[in-house]
Amino acid sequence: MLPAPAAAAEPVPWQMGFQKAVTPVMENITWFHNFLLYITTAIVLLVLILLITVMVRFNAKANPTPSRTTHNTPLEVVWTVIPVLILVAIAVPSFRLLFLQTDTPKADLTIKATGKQWFWTYAYPDHGKLEFDSLMATDKQPRLLAVDNELVVPVNKVVRVQTTGADVIHSFAVPAFGIKIDAVPGRLNETWFKATQTGIYYGQCSELCGRDHAFMPIAVRVVDDAEFATWVEGAKKKFAAAPSNALAAATDETR
User: Which PANTHER family match (predicted)?
Assistant: First the structure.
């Protein structure tokens, strides 16, 4: 039995903004989101000021004789150059973030996540035939997010996640890690994360995959190296001896 998590990331009522970032990718996503918010706010305020100025200074009462100016070269240069500079300022960090997300560094651990109707199967190819199913637990908290068998990974390690679907398209998403990738039947997609804090972090299938789409959570427990090694040894015995619990639960119409 693993100890209680040092931190947890899950949605909360009336939450505004992202969950706390615990990976370098999510930290960059949060920074980029805030950066864009500042830019869009400045643009909206500027446009609002210009509209108010036009309404006040150039209405028929205040300005009965309108200007007949047809061209203003300096002004035209300004309103062309400034938007270009804004787009460049957005594009540069955007491309850097995209490269960070898609360029997987050398992995310390590989996990294969297979989406099924309606649960996840996790495999640890680096640790032999370690494989198990993860279903939503109806008797645990948080509601609709807790699972019977959590995905366990070591802290401060690069974890490569390979995803596929066994039946329909699913989507593996953990907001605190900044990852979201489709699990497509017949195709192997890949993403990665490096959790910098121990704890348990929740996600969900983010693709409309059928009847029980809303009951397909993801729970990732991040532990230190010693706890992870202990868990691996125990999991090999547990899941080698215990039959899969997924098929029975998936076909239980009374759930």
Answer: CYTOCHROME C OXIDASE SUBUNIT 2, CYTOCHROME C OXIDASE, SUBUNIT II
